[in-house]
Amino acid sequence: MNKVVLVTGASRGIGKQIALTFAKNGYDIAVNYNKENEELENLKKEIEQNNVKCFIAKGDVSNYEACEKFVKEVIEEYGKIDVLVNNAGITKDTLLMRMKKEDFETVIDVNLVGTFNVTKNVIPYMIKARSGRIINIASVVGIAGNAGQTNYSASKAGIIGFTKSLAKEVASRNILVNAVAPGFIQTQMTDVLKEDIKEEIAKSIPLGRMGNPQDVANVVKFLASEESSYITGQVINIDGGMLM
Ligand code: NAP
Question: What is the pTM of this model?
Answer without folding.
Answer: 0.98
